[in-house]
């Protein structure tokens, strides 16, 4: 139980510190808020999921690693986006359309990789 609580604390505090100090450095370097939001904050909030997936992969728990990434993305899309859109309407912006198109493309690519892997495993 102690390792579980220490792991949760480490993931949460590492993500918090990573985002906090990355944003501080980006503001000091006069980077735009859009750049900070699209790269540093998004990467920092995904960092705990990435670490968890890497640890799961090293322990040959590939299904857990993939499930963690896919589940996190589904949660971010449907819950976080819905809550933020409910509090402030989302603008019809070119950047948002580009991001949505990239999301659809990457999701299709992920599904294609899963389909190809499933076909390769079933052939063997």
How would you portray this structure in words?
- It is globular, with a radius of gyration of 18 Å.
- With 124 residues, it is mostly helical.
- The chain is built from 4 helices and no strands.
- The protein has 2 domains: 2-90, no CATH class; 93-124.
- The model has no long low-confidence stretch (mean pLDDT 79).
- The chain is 88% helix and 0% strand.
- The relative contact order is 0.06.
- The termini are far apart.
- Helix 1 (2-28) packs antiparallel against helix 2 (33-58).
Return the average pLDDT rounded to an integer: 79
Question: Largest sheet at a glance?
Answer: none
Q: What fraction of residues sit in β-strands?
A: under 5%
Total strands = 0
First-last Cα distance: 40 Å
Approximate helicity band: over 70%
Topology:
Blueprint: H1 2-28, H2 33-58, H3 62-87, H4 94-123
Helix pairs in contact: 1-2, 2-3
Keywords for this structure?
124 residues, 2 domains, 4 helices, globular
Short description:
The chain is built from 4 helices and no strands.
